[in-house]
Amino acid sequence: MDIISAIEKTFTNMPIVSAITSTIFIVLLGYYLRRKGTFGENFNKVLTKVVLAVSVPALAFNSFMQPIDQKSMHQGMGVLVWGILIYIIFIFLTPLLYVKEKKDRRDTMAILTTFGSTTFFGIPIVGAILGPEGVIYSSLFNIGYRIFLYSYAYIKMSGLKMTAKNIEKMFKNTIVIATFVGLFMWLFQSYVPQVTVPAMKNGLAIGGMTHVAFYRIDQTALWLWKPLNYLASLASPLAWLAIGCTLGSIPFKEAAANKLSWYYSFNKVLLVPLFNLVVLVLLESLHILTLNYVAIATIVIMMATPTAAVASAYAINYNRDAVLSSNASFLSTIVAVILMPVWIAILSILNQVGLFH
Q1: Is the dihedral of CA 300, 97, 315, 253 positive or negative?
Q2: Domain assignment present for 296
Q3: Domain total of the chain
Q4: What is the pLDDT of residues 96-112, one digit of tens each?
Q5: Which structural domain, as residue segments, surrounds residue 97?
Q6: What's the pTM value of the predicted model, to 2 decimals?
Q7: What is the CA radius of gyration of the chain?
Q8: Are 76 and 276 within 8 A, CB to CB?
Q9: Residue 82 maps to a domain
Q10: What DSSP string describes 224-266?
C-alpha cells in the first residue's frame, strides 16, 4: 500500500477520526466552560481526583478481563520489559538535552522530560484509540514508570534518600493495586477453577457457551463488571474535560514568554515519542524485541504525553524551578493536545503501509 492510500484509509477510518475529534472537542469544551466560569478554579483538581481514584483503576482492572494466549502474553511481557528499559535509558540521555543549563536546572528538566502524564493523559487516549488490548499494554508499561517515578525521580528532586513512606505510597496507589490484581488474574486464569457460562461480549450475549476462569467477571458476574465498566468509561471524557479546564485557568502569555519551556515541550511531546518509535521499529526489524502495532502505538502515545503531575509536584514542593516547571507543564499540555492527533494519524499510516506486524 502506498503512502497516499494509507493516509486516505486512515482519515476515512471513522473509529480513528471520531476518537481524535472526541479528544479535541471535549478538551475545547473544558476550556470554554472554565473561561466562561461554569467550571470553578479548582474544578480540574476535582475531576483529576475522580479520574485517578476511580476511573483509571476501574479501566486498568477491567482491561485484564480478556482471554490470554501466547501471543498476547509475549506482547505484554515485551511492553513490560521496554517500559523498564526506556526509563533507565532516559535517565542517562535526557540530561544531554539541557547541557547548557546549570546542574540543578538540568536535572529538573531532565526528569520532567523523562516522566510524562502517562496515567492521566495517556491511558484514556490509549483506551479510546486502541481498546482493551491497548489498556493492558499501557498498564504494563506503567509499572516501570511508577518504579522510577517514585524512586529515582523522588530522590533526585528532593535530595533525600528513598523512604519507606514513599515506597508504601507507591504500592498503596489504587491504580497500582488494580493493575497488579488484574495482571495476576489475567496471567493465571488457566490455572484456577473453570466454569461454563453463556458467552458475552461487552455485556451482551453473543450465543453459545464459553469456558472461563470463575473470576472472569465480564462473563460470570455482569452485575460487578457493568458498574466497573461505567466507571472506566468515564476516564477519557473526564480527563479531557480536566485538561481543557487546566488550560483555561492559566494565562498563556505568561507561560509562552519562556523559551526553555517551549524547547522542553518540543523534547517531551515530539522527540521522546519519536525516539521510542524509531528504536522500537529498529528492534522489531532486527527481531530483538518484536512488538505489534497496538503495543508500539501504546508506547508512543504514552510517551507523547505532557509533564507528569507528580514530577511537577516534586519541582514545586522542593523548590526546583517551580515557576519554570509550571510553565513547562502548561505549554507541554497545549503542544500534546495539538500533536496527539498527529501522532495517532502517523501511527495509523505507518500501520497501513505495513511497517508493523
Answers
A1: negative
A2: yes
A3: 1
A4: 999 999 988 999 999 99
A5: 3-352
A6: 0.83
A7: 20
A8: no
A9: yes
A10: HHHHHHHHHHTHHHHHHHHHHHHHTTS-HHHHHT-HHHHHHHH
